[in-house]
Write a structure and sequence with these properties.
By secondary structure, this protein is mainly beta. Strands 9, 11, 12, 14, 19, 20, 21 and 23 form an eight-stranded antiparallel beta sheet that branches. A five-stranded antiparallel beta sheet has the order 1-5-4-7-8, with no helix packed on it. It has a four-stranded antiparallel beta sheet with strand order 15-16-17-18, with no helix packed on it. Strand 20 and strand 21 form a beta hairpin. The longest helix has 10 residues. It is elongated. The two termini are 30 Å apart.
């Protein structure tokens, strides 16, 4: 990303040779220091919390202590601060325009009283606000999330999705249908959200996705569904009523203490379960262990896996976005 486009929220913030954006007008400003003529100040020390689960994260910095006067230039993803940079006397920066998921680095330089600019200090943030894996199941098992952990379809056939789009979901027969994936890093042992649209089979029981035997959704008699978590020798599930044979949005969260199940955007079941999931296997769908020994019957659409717990507002928005 080059320059940041957008309005300037902070009254003591300007843009160098182009548009820029930042939020925050009352941050602490380093005490001015006298510059030495002809000598550039030391680069600021930039810090950030990573990963970030918001697309408008905040970076902070301190003066390098080498003669700067508390005037800074900042720019996301480019060390060229001569144009397109934001000039500010704040000691923090939050972009007004949301950043994309992935790695982003903020570069910060400081000026002294002689007009000399330091080299840029910098810090990197990994943004994972979106799903770490996302399977739309539009007649395929491609992962369009960060992991790109694509699946191999073994049997499920295309079916209309929860919006009625033809071939927009996958139907599992409960006999030998499944989807297997490769090994990927998820980081969901104590912070996880899994979301999906499901259509249950009235006579179906089973744990059907995504982390077989450790964490995922299960159904009972096609009339209950809920999030399941196993931590060592202990396992629990938060089951809630769902209509059999009807597309329903289910979402499960686990924060290392409590399992929650949401149905159509509303909290429907909760179960205390302190602990940490000991290991996360390769995701599989429909096939319990990915080994062909237990299968689930029903339809799946738009599965999303997050490595953090979504807020109540985010859960409601996800359901309403369809």
């Amino acid at each position: 990303m080059g320059s940041l486009d957008g309005p300037i929220a902070a009254p003591d913030t300007t843009t160098v040779g182009g548009a820029g954006g930042a939020s925050g007008a009352s941050g602490a400003t380093p005490a001015p220091a006298e510059g030495i003529p002809g000598v550039a100040p030391a680069a600021p020390t930039v810090t950030a919390v990573s990963p970030s689960y918001t697309r408008t994260p905040t970076w902070m910095w301190k003066s390098g202590g080498g003669g700067g006067n508390g005037t800074f230039r900042v720019r996301v993803d480019s060390p060229d601060l001569s144009t397109g940079a934001v000039e500010t006397r704040n000691a923090f920066f939050t972009p007004l325009m949301p950043l994309t998921d992935g790695l982003h680095r903020l570069f910060v330089a400081e000026r002294n009283d002689a007009g000399k600019w330091s080299g840029p200090g910098n810090a990197e943030i990994l943004i994972t606000a979106g799903p770490i894996s996302h399977y739309p199941f539009d007649n395929h098992a491609m992962d369009v999330g960060i992991n790109q952990n694509h699946g191999t379809v073994k049997g499920p056939r295309a079916t209309p999705d929860h919006l009625g789009n033809p071939n927009g979901a996958l139907l599992f027969d409960g006999i030998d249908d499944g989807i297997s994936t490769g090994l990927a890093k998820y980081g969901v042992e104590t912070n996880a959200t899994v979301s999906a649209w499901i259509k249950t089979n009235p006579a179906e029981d089973g744990l059907f996705f995504p982390f077989a035997g450790q964490m995922g959704f299960m159904t009972r008699n096609g009339k209950e569904a809920g999030f399941y978590v196993s931590t060592g020798l202990n396992s629990s599930s938060a089951l809630a009523a769902v209509p059999a044979g009807v597309w329903t949005h289910v979402l499960g969260t686990f924060d290392g203490r409590v399992i929650n199940t949401y149905v159509n955007g509303v909290l429907a079941a909760t179960e205390p379960h302190p602990g940490k999931v000991e290991w996360i296997p390769n995701p599989s769908f429909g096939d319990y262990r990915g080994l062909g020994d237990e299968f689930w019957a029903g339809a799946l659409d738009d599965v999303r896996i997050y490595n953090h717990v979504l807020s109540v507002t985010e859960i409601k928005e996800l359901f309403e976005s369809k």
